Here is the input.
Amino acid sequence: MRFAQYDPEGFFDEMFVSAGAPRAGAHALTQVIDALPAGEIERRQRSAERALLAMGITFNVYGADEGTERIFPFDLIPRIVSAAEWRTIERGLKQRIHALNLFIDDVYHERRILKDRVIPDYVLETAASLRAPCMGMRPPHGIWCHVTGTDLVRHSDGQVYVLEDNLRCPSGVSYVLQNRNLMKRTFPQVFAASRIRPVDDYPSHLRATLEYLAPEGIDSPRVVVLTPGPYNSAYFEHSFLAQQMGVELVEGRDLVVSDGFVWMRTTKGYERVDVIYRRIDDDFLDPTVFRADSMLGVPGLMDVYAAGRVALANAPGTGVADDKVIYAYVPKIVKYYLGEEIILPNVPTYICAEEAERRYVIENIASLVVKSANESGGYGMLVGPHASKKEQTAFAAKIAENPRNYIAQPTLSLSRVPTIVEGGTFEGRHVDLRPYILYGKDIYVLPGGLTRVALKKGSLVVNSSQGGGSKDTWVLAGDPRLDTDRPEVDTVMATMLQGQT
Amino acid sequence: MLSRVAESIYWMTRYIERAENVARFVDVNLNLMLDFPGSSDQQWQPLVDITGDTEDFKERYGEASQASVIRFLTFDTKNSNSILSCVRAARENARSVREIISSSMWEHLNQSYLMLTAAASRRREISDPHELFSSVKTASQAFTGITDTTMTHNEGWHFCRLGRQLERADKTSRILDVKYFLLLPKVDDVGTTVDDVQWAAVLRSASAFEMYHKRHGRISPTRIVEFLLLDEQFPRAIHHSVKAARESVHAITGTPTAMFRSPVEQLLGLLCSELAYAQVDEIIAGGLHEYLDGLQTKMNQIGSHIYDTFFSGRPAAPKRQVQRRVGVAPMA
Here is the structure.
C-alpha cells in the first residue's frame, strides 16, 4: 500500500501535483500512510465502517424491506484544501449567499430585478419553486436562507465552480462531523502534525443562528428541529443535530397551533415553540396553505409565521433560488445587488428556454450534461457522453416539449482524490465538495464540508443514491504568516512558501 | 418532555425487559430438561402461556415441542413477543429518541440488535442456545447499567425505569401464575426431588434462586410465592417493582409521595399498600390464581392511565396549561 504507485492519470488531483509529488499540506498524510505495514490501511478502513454501523449512522433505502439501513460509504483518504484556496472559497460563498438572500427578498416584494430587466419576467413567473403564499412575508432580520449547502466542483483547468445552490433543506453536515470523528481515531498522528481546522463547533453556530431568529423579547427561545420522522432517509442527521444542539427533535404531530402560537405537546402540558429548524419541504409544512394531503406538517403554522410569532429556517419560499434557470443568472444577480464581480464562477450554462441556446443544446447534446430545473440528487439529468444515442434523442424531445424545465452545461472533468479500491490499492475517483453556510447575525462558512466521491471507476455521479460515498475534508489552517485578511498577500506568500516545502 | 418521546422511552425499556424475561424462561426450561432426560414436550407449552400468545402459537405451530417453542420465542418475527421482535421494537423506539438517550445506550442497543439479527440469519436451528440466551440477558442487564450511569436521572430516565419495572412486575406475576398452576396439582410429587427441582426452576426463571436461599434457606412453595410477590428488597419481586414504578411516577409529576393527583398515582399507591400489608397465607387461601388475576387487571389499568396521563397528547387547550413563559406578551 504505497502512494509511489499512484498515478493521477492526467486528471486534476487534489492530493498530488503529479505522480509521486504530493501537494503542499498532503506530506504528513502520505508519509504516515506510506509507513503503514501491509494491510493496515484496509484494516483501518474496515474498522471505520464497523464503527459507522455500530453507531447506527445509516441512511434508509426507500422501498426495500429488511437490511434497508445502509452506511453511507466512507473512504479514509481525505480531501485536503489549502488555506489560501479556502479563503477564496469562503469569500465567494459569503458573497453568493448575501446576494441570493437579497434576491429572494426582492422576489417576494418589489421585484426590482425584473423591473430593471436583469432577469426576464418569464423566468420567475414559470419557476415551479416560487411559493405564492410567501409574497410579502417578512422573515426576521430579512434573512431567508439560514442554512445553505452549495455544491462546488473543480474542473481540469484547476478552477473551482459552483455547480448548484441548495437553499432548501441541504443535508449531509452530520456526515462531515462524524467523518471527522472517525478520522481523528484513525490517524491521530496526522492531526497532531497538520493544522486542520476543526468542524466540531458547527452545532453551536447553528444554534446561535437559529436563536437569532426568535421573536423579539424572548430571552431564551425554544428552538426545535422538525423532522418527517424515523423513516426519512436523513433521520439520523435530524436527530444528531437536535442532540448536538441540545434542542428537542419534534414531528409534526408533536406540534399544535392554538391561540396564535405554536406549541409542543409534552408530558406536562403544552410549551411554546419560538424557532423551528424544519427539515421538511415547503409543500408539507402546513396543509392549510400548501399540500392539503400532508401528514407531516402543522395546520395553521404559516399564519403564526406570518404574524412573526414563530420563525422558520429556512424561510418558506427560498427554493426559488434553487431553480437551475435562475442559477444561470446568479453572476448577474451578484452584480445587480452588490455591484461586485462574482468570485466563484458558475459552470457555463445554456438556458433551453432561449431559442438560440436551445438549438445549440440539441445539436450538441452528446457532449453536454442536461439537467431539469427543479430536481436534485442526480435525478432527471442526462450525462451526454455517457448516454446512448437513443437516450440522447429521447432527452432532446423532452427539451423541445418543455424548454423552460431544462438547462445544459459542458461535461466537466471533475477533479479526483486517491481512494482505496478493491485489492487495497489507491485509484483516483471524482469528487465534489459541499460546504455549509449559515446566515444569522453574520454569514459563517464551516471550514470543511462534505466531499462526495463517485466510487465507481470513471463515474461522475457522486450522489449517495447512485453509488456515491464520502470523504473527510481537511481545510488547513495555513501558516500563521498567512493569517491575514488580504487574500492577494496570501496568494503571493503561499507561492513563496510552497517553494520551501 | 414531549409526550411522544416519553412514550417511546417507556416502550423501549419495556421491550428490552420483555426480551430478557423470555430469554430467561427458555433458558431455565432447557436446563430443566437436562435434569429430566426423556421428559415430554408438555414442559414447553407453559412458556408460550407465560407470554400470553397461546392462540397465535397453536394456529401456526400446533403442538408444542422444544424446537417449535424455541423458534417461536426467539427469532419468529411474526410473534411480536419473540426476543428478536422485542429487541427490534426497542431499537425502533430508541431510534426515534436517540437525541434524548445517551449515545452509549443507543450504541449498546444497536449492537445487541445487530448481534441478534446475525444469529438469526446464520441458521435455522440455534447451535448454542444457552450462549444466545445468556447474551440476551446480559445485554439487557448491561443496558440498565448503562442507562443508570450515562443518562441524567431526569424525567426521561424515570420513564425508562417506569417501563422496565411495570414489565418486570407483569412477567414475574405470569411466571408465578403459570408455574404454580402447573406444579401444585401433582400431589404425589410434593416433597420429592422432582418437586424441589421444579420449584428451583421457578426461582431461576426470575433470577431469584440465590437470593431466595439467602433469605429463606429451604425450598417451600409458600415462601417462594411470598418472596416473588411480596419481598420489598428483591429487585424482581412484584412489590419491589411496583414500588419503584410508583417512585418514578411521582418523580415525573412532582406530586408528594403520600398524595395523589391523578388516577395513575392513586392506583399505584393503593397497590403498593396492598402488597406491603398482604399476608402470603391469606393470598394462598383465597386462591393464588385469583389473586394474580386481580393483580394483572390492576396493572393493566395502571398502564392505560399512564397512557392517558402522559402519552395521549390530548390534554385540555394549551392556553390554560402553559407551564413555561406565562405572561409573555404576544408579539405582533
